[in-house]
Amino acid sequence: MQPSLASRLRMALVMSLAVYPIVTLYLYILMPLTPGWEMWQRSLVLVPFMATTIVMLIVPFISRYFGAFIAGKRKSTAATA
């Protein structure tokens, strides 16, 4: 079963919010260490770190804490009698 367009858009939103600060942090660390490097050289160093961070940390975190939001499921409240 394919995920709906809405769930893919929600995943893209949550991923963007999670990935942006980490990319920014990595760039702040990388830029002073690589003065004079071309952009492709910095990217060659950045991408393996970023891909590993996404796969090992961000996706599991998002799946655990935002899975219901991404799937479009509401939390059910048990009616007390």
What can you see in these coordinates?
The protein is mostly helical. The chain has two helices and no strands. The protein starts with a helix and ends in a 10-residue tail after the last helix. The model has no long low-confidence stretch (mean pLDDT 92).
The arrangement of helices and strands along the chain is HH
Summed up, the helix count is 2
Helix/strand-derived class?
mainly alpha
Q: Give the mean pLDDT.
A: 92
What's the count of strands? 0
- Tell me the quaternary state: single chain
- In angstroms, what is the radius of gyration? 18 Å
Helical percent range? over 70%
State the end-to-end distance: 37 Å
Task: Provide the descriptors you would attach to this structure in a database record.
81 residues, mainly alpha, elongated
Question: Helix and strand layout, with pairings?
Answer:
Elements: H1 5-33, H2 39-71
Summary of the model, kept short:
The protein is mostly helical and 81 residues long. Helix content is 77%, strand content 0%.
